[in-house]
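Postdoc handover notes: sequence design on the structure in folder B. Input C-alpha cells:
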C-alpha cells in the first residue's frame, strides 16, 4: 500500500521539482547577471506561469496532498523572494526599457499578488502570537489590532 502512495505521488513531486529547478536556475542567472535584467524578468514570469498551472492542478482542482502543500509553499516563497530581488535590481538599474511589454509596475503587482496568495493560503500571524511578539518587543501588554 505504501508503494502505491509513493508511486502515485511521484509524478506530482516530479512536476513541482521541475518548476523548482527552473526557479533555482533563474535565481542563479540573475545573481550571475548572465542574460540581462529584461530577460530575467521574462524568465521569472515564465516560471510563475508554470507555478500557477501546478497550483491550479494540484491545489485548486483537487484536494491538495501534503507533498503539494509543501512544494507549493516553498516555491511561493522563492518566487516572492526572486520578485523582490528583481524589483531591487530594477530600482538600481533605472527600470526596464521603455519599449518593454512588461513594466516594473507589473512586477510589483505580481509580487503583491503572490504575497496575497501566501497570506490567504498559509495565514498570517494569529492574534495570540501577535500579542506575544509585541509583548516581548515592548514589554507591555498588546491589544488586538483586529
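Designed sequence:
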Amino acid at each position: 500500500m505504501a508503494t502505491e502512495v509513493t508511486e502515485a505521488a511521484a509524478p506530482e513531486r516530479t512536476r513541482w521539482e521541475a518548476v523548482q529547478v527552473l526557479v533555482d536556475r533563474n535565481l542563479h542567472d540573475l545573481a550571475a547577471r548572465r542574460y540581462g535584467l529584461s530577460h530575467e524578468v521574462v524568465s521569472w514570469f515564465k516560471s510563475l506561469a508554470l507555478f500557477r498551472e501546478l497550483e491550479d492542478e494540484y491545489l485548486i482542482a483537487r484536494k491538495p496532498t501534503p507533498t503539494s502543500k509543501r512544494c507549493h509553499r516553498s516555491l511561493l516563497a522563492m518566487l516572492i523572494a526572486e520578485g523582490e530581488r528583481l524589483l531591487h535590481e530594477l530600482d538600481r538599474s533605472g527600470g526596464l526599457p521603455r519599449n518593454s511589454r512588461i513594466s516594473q509596475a507589473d512586477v510589483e503587482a505580481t509580487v503583491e499578488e503572490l504575497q496575497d496568495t501566501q497570506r490567504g493560503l498559509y495565514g498570517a500571524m494569529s492574534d495570540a502570537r501577535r500579542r506575544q511578539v509585541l509583548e516581548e518587543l515592548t514589554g507591555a501588554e498588546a491589544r488586538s489590532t483586529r
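Context for whoever picks this up: The chain has five helices and no strands. Don't rerun without checking with the PI first.
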